[in-house]
Amino acid sequence: MSDALSENAPPRRTALDAVHRALGATMTDFAGWDMPLRYASERDEHQAVRTRAGLFDLSHMGEIAVTGPQAGELLDYALVGNLGALKPGRARYTMICDASGGILDDLIVYRLADREHEGHREYMVVANASNAQVVLDALTERSAGFDAAVRDDRDAYALLAVQGPEAAGILSGLTDADLGGLKYYAGLPGTVAGAKALIARTGYTGEDGFELFVDPSDAERLWRALLAAGADAGLVPCGLSCRDTLRLEAGMPLYGHELTRNTTPFDAGLGRVVKFEKTANEGRFVGREALAAAAERTREQAPRTRVGLVAEGRRVPRAGFPVVDGEGRTIGEVTSGAPSPTLGKPIAMAYVDAAHAAPGTPGVSVDIRGKHEPYEVVALPFYRREN
Amino acid sequence: MSNPQNLRYSKEHEWLSVAEDGVSTIGITEHAANALGDVVYVDLPEVGATVTAGETCGELESTKSVSDLYSPVSGEVTEANQDVVDDPGLVNSAPFEGGWLFKVRVTEEPDDLLDAAGYTEFTGA
Lengths: 387, 125
Description:
The complex is a heterodimer.
Chain A: H1 2-8, E1 12-13, H2 17-22, E2 26-30, E3 33-38, H3 42-51, E4 53-57, E5 62-68, H4 71-78, E6 91-97, E7 103-111, E8 121-127, H5 132-142, E9 149-152, E10 158-163, H6 167-172, E11 187-192, E12 195-200, E13 209-214, H7 219-230, E14 235-237, H8 240-249, H9 288-300, E15 305-311, E16 322-324, E17 330-340, E18 345-352, E19 365-368, E20 371-378
Parallel strand pairs in A: 1-3, 4-14
Antiparallel strand pairs in A: 2-3, 4-10, 5-8, 5-9, 6-7, 7-8, 10-13, 11-12, 12-13, 15-18, 15-20, 16-17, 16-19, 17-18, 19-20
Helix pairs in contact in A: 3-8
Chain B: E1 8-9, E2 14-16, E3 23-28, H1 30-36, E4 39-43, E5 50-51, E6 56-62, E7 66-70, E8 74-80, H2 82-86, H3 90-93, E9 102-108, H4 116-122
Antiparallel strand pairs in B: 1-2, 2-3, 3-9, 4-6, 5-8, 6-7, 8-9
C-alpha cells in the first residue's frame, strides 16, 4: 500500500538538490529520491575515489533510531546479528530477515556512545532507501514487549560521504575529532566545518573513508567546505553510478541484486552475519529456526555460490543474464555487472552452481543477448586496497 | 551543447553528414552520448554490410546499459571507425568529430530527418 503510494508521489529531493543542479548533475530517480547519477564522467569519478577522493550525497539512506533500556535486546531479537554486544561508538554490518530467513535488508547499525546514559541506550540503524519503510515497520512491530522505542529519523539527517585514500587528510583539516583513533566501522560525535556530525569510518567503495550524518540545514555548508578543503587533493563530487561500480569491484552485495527476500544470508555466502550464539531473549530472534535450517542445508549441499566473473571480451553482463557452461547449460545467473574502470574489463557478480564456482573453472560463459561470451570465474573481491 | 548546423539528425539521436561522393558519415549526438554516460564498448556494422534506415545495426554499451545503434539511412557500409572501437570514450569526448561511427553509401534517405534547429527542439534543449 505504502509502496503504491510512494510510486505515484514525486521523487523526494535531498537538502543538496540545488547544489547538484548547479553542478550540472545528471539526476536519476532512485528508490523514490531524485539523486545525482553522475556529474560528468562516471569513470573519472570512480578513479578519483580509487586514487584521490570523492564526495557523495547519500541522504536517501534511511536512518532509524532505536532507543531505551532494552534497545540492545530489541535489536538482538529483530536482527540476525549480536548488536547487544556491540561496544559504544562502534558499528556493525548486519541484516534483518523475515521469519522464513529471507533477507528484508542489509543494514549498518551504529551504537551512539554520546546519547547513552545510565540505563539508556541509543542505536542508529541505517537501511537502504528502497527498504527503509519495510525496516521501520518490521522494527516497530518487533518492538512489542521491549522497553525500547523505534523512531523514524529519515528526515533528521543528511548524509555526506568522503571516500578515497585522501579522505582522512581532507577531513582532518575541518575537524578536531581524533580521526587517527577512529577505527574502521566506528563512529564518534564531532564538529566538521562548524556542523555537528556523527563521523563514521564506513563506506561502500572499498576505500578508506568517512560518512558524515548531519542536520539537513548544515548539509550545503558542509558540502562546500569539504569540496574547498579537498580541491588540492583532487576531491570531486561523485554520483550513484560510480558508487555502484566501486562497490561491485569491492565485492560488496547490493540489495535487490545479490540480496533479496528469497535469499537467506547463507545462500548469499554471508552466513557469518547470523549469530546463533547470542544470549539475550534466550537466544530467540526472528528467523532463527529457518536460518538454522538454511545453515544446515547449505552445509550439506553447497548452494549456488556468489562468485566474481571477469570478461575475456568487451561485452558487459547485466543483472539477470544466464551463466552457462561449455555445453550451453544454464549454471547460474548474473546479479550485477558493469565495465570495471580499475580492471579495464567487464566484471560481474553471479550466483553459480557449486560445481562451477571454483576460481578458474573452465568453459564458463555469460549469455549476452544470445551470444555466449567467455568469462573467468574469480574469487571476490575484484579489488582490494593495499593498506 | 550545440548541434552542428551542417548535419542532419534522426529521432533515434544519430547524426548524418552531407554526402560526399554519395557517402555520409554517421554518429550519435552529444545529447545521446550524455544520456548514455561513459561508452565502454561499441559494436559497429561491418564494411560491406547493408543497413536500413530506422533498423538496428549495432550496439553501444555504457556503464549502466546497452543501447541499440540505428542507422538513419539505408545503404552500404563503406567504413567503420576503428578508432572508436579501440577507444569508445571518443563517443563521449568528441561525438560529432573523432567519435563518428560508420560511413554509408546512401541509397535511400527517410524524409523525416531533422535539421539542427529541429533536433534541438526535439530534445527540448
